[in-house]
Amino acid sequence: MDTERDNDKTSDSAPPSNAVLFRMLLVLKLKLFAGYILDGFAPFVAVIALIVAVMAMNNNQDSHAQLSQSAAAIESLSASLQASKSELEMLKAALEQEKLSLELERKKQDERMTLIIQNVSKLQVKMKVSPTLEDQIHPLVSSSVIQPAIAPASNKSLVLSGANKISSEQIDTIKNEISKFNNK
Fold first, then answer.
1. Could you tell me the pTM of the whole model?
2. Which of 10, 40, 43, 99 could be a cystine partner for 16, CB 3.0 to 4.6 Å?
3. Is the link from the previous residue into 131 a cis peptide, with omega within 30 of 0?
4. 170: which DSSP letter?
5. What are the φ and ψ backbone dihedral angles of 149, each rounded to 5 degrees?
6. Where are the extended beta strands (E) located within the chain?
7. Residue 13: strand, helix, or coil
8. pLDDT tens-digit profile of 136-160?
């Protein structure tokens, strides 16, 4: 509006000066430039928004790829954990079976030892050896039940004291009988 008034004043009166003309030219050029900037600003903002959207989608796709890789890694770890658990269960079962077989073997050895002691004692009775092996062991068993700390040392001394009274013929006979029994 001011420019129209200025134009009206200048057209009615004297010709405008160079400064006024320069100012009017500058205002027109700035209006034109501002119009171009405002016309180009919306598409520029749209292009920037499009670039940001594309970058967000790429990051989102990267996140999905990373998520799928993480899920695959978790699945593989879960599968290996299951395999380890099943292997552990198999080892536990094998250990239990081993314990059971060792317990059975120990029972068989105890029964065999009891049978050997009885047979040796019978031979000692026939040979009139006193005290018999069974007599020597039974006090040990009862004393080991009452006082378990004394058992190893007293076993050897009692067996040796009984062995000192046995002759070499008797020892040979006992060895032969034991070897016959073991060969059965």
1. 0.38
2. 10
3. yes
4. H
5. -75, -20
6. none
7. coil
8. 877 655 555 444 444 444 444 444 4
Which residues does the chain have with pLDDT short of 50?
1, 145-161, 163
Would you state the structure tokens that stand for residue 147, as one six-digit string? 């006082």
Residue found under tokens 């004291």? 161
Contact call for residues 151 and 136 (beta carbons, < 8 A): no
DSSP code string of 46-88: HHHHHHHHHHHHHHHHHHHHHHHHHHHHHHHHHHHHHHHHHHH
C-alpha pair distances (Å), 96 with each of 80, 102, 124, 157: 24, 10, 41, 38
Judged on CB neighbours under 10 Å (0-12, 13-18, 19+), 67 is: exposed
Query: What's 150's DSSP letter?
Result: G
